[in-house]
Specification:
α2 packs parallel to α4. The two termini are 26 Å apart. The protein has six helices and seven strands; from the N terminus they run ββαββββαααααβ. The chain folds into two domains: 123 residues, Archaeosine Trna-guanine Transglycosylase, Chain: A, domain 4 (Roll), CATH 2.30.130.40; 83 residues. The chain is an alpha+beta fold. The protein has a five-stranded mixed beta barrel.
Length: 235
């Protein structure tokens, strides 16, 4: 999945100003694709600007209490996900269906004063970090993650062929943790914690704990993962 041309990205492509698309119910991870339905006027304006330039937008998670000020500027969690719009379809009335390729974690340093209808923030890219001289542990974590995730997918036959190809390919540990974290049906706080962890070994171990818990909690008929491929997320 991460070998597709759409995922090719250099940090130099990002100017350091993030167009914010914060939602209350979605944590996006690098190395995945997310369909979005964009209909609010402020986010349509954000999308139009992105499409006329670098096509980059940043998906963030609204902090608890967002309901009191959704139309304004409610707080956003500090770690978000930078993505590139690769497909955009304009609908009647001005809304869009888009397909977003998620590229990198970013840290939102500070929000900029309101100069546009949508929100912007100064952001910095957060690269994955691997403990030095632990190649053997990295390989072992990859094997454990693949095995643990496949064990809880017994009732997703429609996804098995795609997942077998995906998980059987030559993915880095960081990429594998992000794809599984995105698909795993766990709470938003847990997902945000996984997104915020840039130490790949720590992220993998945390994810293995969630997979073990999911395996214990679920009945045999439950999949323990979100539908794959994902459905559209609305703003």
């Amino acid at each position: 999945m991460s070998t597709f041309d759409e995922f090719s990205f250099s940090a130099q492509e990002f100017c350091g100003t993030a167009r914010l698309f914060p939602l209350p119910n979605l944590v996006l991870f690098p190395h995945v694709m997310q369909p979005l339905h964009v209909f609010e006027p402020r986010y349509r304006a954000m999308l139009e600007e992105a499409l006329s330039g670098d096509r980059l937008i940043t998906m963030g998670l609204l902090a608890p209490g967002w309901e009191r000020d959704y139309e304004g500027r409610p707080p956003v969690r500090p770690i978000a996900c930078l993505g590139r719009v690769i497909v955009s379809q304009r609908l009647a009335g001005g809304a869009h269906n888009v397909l977003l390729v998620a590229l990198r974690r970013v840290r939102l340093v500070r929000e900029l004063p309101p100069a546009k209808s949508f929100r912007e923030a100064v952001a910095e890219i957060c690269e994955d970090r691997y403990p030095p001289q632990q190649v053997g542990k990295t390989a072992a974590l990859i094997r454990k993650l693949r095995g643990a995730f496949l064990r809880i997918l017994a009732d997703l036959p429609q996804a098995h062929e795609q997942l077998d190809q995906l998980l059987g390919s030559d993915l880095s540990l960081g990429t594998l943790t992000d794809i599984i974290s995105y698909m795993l049906d766990i709470g938003l706080d847990a997902k945000e914690a996984l997104l915020a962890e840039t130490n790949v070994h720590r992220r993998a171990k945390l994810l293995l704990e969630h997979l073990a818990q999911a395996s214990c909690d679920l009945e045999p008929a439950a999949a323990g993962a979100q539908p794959f491929p994902p459905s559209f997320s609305c703003n």
